[in-house]
């Protein structure tokens, strides 16, 4: 029986092309669990993998999609049986191993977690890797102690930023949301942001290594000049959970905020999280993310929409989360 997948291929000149193709189960890679995929999403990494440069893809032809949720169809591993609802993020799926832009996927049992109670497969993918990472970032801030001032979220209208804003607001923190898109102010306020900060206000080179102690914590999806500037604006002993580099990988900062203010820079990696951490984070998502807010973030899509959406996310044009119904 054949089924649909978004296949990316590379021609002799090194140019990549992504198109919806029919494949069969025999084409899938070897692994223990075959999943009937229901939903996947569009993350920044997916944009890189779909796009013309190929980005992070390790082998061609390739099926991108760094996350998915669905139902187990068959399993050679005792932990999963047919009918189980599962969710997958990370482990280089969609980069080195065929991913979720397919009606079926075959993956290692170790990479899956059971869908937590309170979430269906569509909600799990409305959260997706971006939202799961936002939860990991909030948990890291909690572990190190969130101080009194507002918690800053950068890249707030994007996937990580939107979910981080909604979770922090639900937990009772005052959230200041940094965005370069003024038209998203109403959206961000509906998610729970109490203050909108224009990107230009923060996104400039560090002039003084320390400024006023302004933020009690920060979830940073942008990196680059913005992260460098934010470090000097943190309260004494406060933490920045660094998640992404949508604004650049270079960090033009000084060591002064670490030395004179005891600021913590916490690196967040969603890819290699051990099973127990993943389960804990998904359970926290089910508990702490307001589902009505999640719905407001969602833009629906199909497999054939993906080439365009991959380009949009790299250009910072996607608002919130894109949920891909692979069977639509
Ligand atoms: P999105 O594209 O959805 O969001 C990124 C947001 O950053 C944009 O919406 C925009 O927000 C802002 N932004 C984009 N370009 C710039 C710029 N040049 N300067 C300042 N701000 C900018 O991506 P995600 O939220 O899905 O991911 C964000 C980052 O986190 C990416 O780098 C991604 O690779 C990384 N990531 C890391 C993970 C990990 O495990 N560490 C897991 C998931 C994602 P606005 O319009 O509001 O200004």
UniProtKB/TrEMBL annotation:
Source organism superkingdom: Bacteria
Classification via InterPro entries: Acrylyl-CoA_reductase_AcuI, ADH-like_C, ADH-like_N, ER, GroES-like_sf, NAD(P)-bd_dom_sf, Zn-ADH-like_protein
SUPFAM superfamilies: GroES-like, NAD(P)-binding Rossmann-fold domains
Domain spans labelled Enoyl reductase (ER): 14-324
Molecular function terms from GO: acryloyl-CoA reductase (NADPH) activity
Pfam families hit by this protein: ADH_N, ADH_zinc_N
Name by which UniProt lists this protein: Putative quinone oxidoreductase, YhdH/YhfP family
UniProt organism field: Sulfitobacter delicatus
């Amino acid at each position: 029986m054949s089924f649909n997948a978004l296949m990316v291929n590379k021609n002799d000149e090194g140019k990549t092309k992504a198109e919806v193709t029919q494949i069969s189960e025999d084409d899938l890679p070897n692994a223990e669990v075959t999943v009937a995929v229901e939903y996947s999403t569009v993350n920044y990494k997916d944009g890189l993998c779909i796009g013309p440069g190929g980005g992070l893809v390790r082998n061609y032809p390739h099926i991108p999609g760094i996350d998915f949720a669905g139902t187990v169809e068959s399993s050679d591993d005792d932990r999963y049986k047919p009918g189980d609802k599962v969710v997958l993020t990370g482990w280089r799926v969609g980069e080195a191993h065929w991913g979720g832009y397919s009606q079926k996927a075959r993956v290692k049992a170790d990479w899956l977690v059971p869908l937590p109670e309170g979430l269906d497969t569509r909600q799990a993918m409305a959260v997706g890797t971006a939202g799961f990472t936002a939860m990991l970032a909030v948990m890291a801030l909690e572990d190190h102690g969130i101080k009194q001032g507002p918690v800053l979220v950068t890249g707030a209208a994007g996937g990580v930023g939107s979910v981080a804003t909604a979770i922090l607001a639900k937990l009772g923190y005052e959230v200041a949301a940094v965005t370069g898109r003024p038209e998203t102010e109403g959206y961000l306020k509906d998610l729970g942001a109490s203050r909108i900060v224009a990107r230009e206000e923060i996104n400039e080179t560090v002039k003084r290594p320390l400024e006023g102690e302004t933020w009690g914590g920060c979830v940073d999806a942008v990196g680059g000049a913005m992260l460098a500037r934010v470090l000097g604006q943190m309260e004494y002993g406060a933490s920045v959970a660094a998640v992404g580099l949508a604004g650049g990988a270079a960090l033009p900062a000084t060591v002064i905020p670490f030395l004179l203010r005891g600021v913590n820079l916490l690196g967040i990696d969603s890819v290699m999280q051990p099973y127990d951490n993943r389960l804990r984070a998904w359970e926290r998502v089910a508990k702490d993310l307001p589902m009505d807010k999640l719905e407001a973030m969602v833009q629906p899509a199909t497999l054939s929409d993906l080439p365009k959406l991959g380009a949009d996310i790299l250009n910072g044009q996607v608002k919130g989360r894109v949920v891909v119904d692979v069977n639509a």
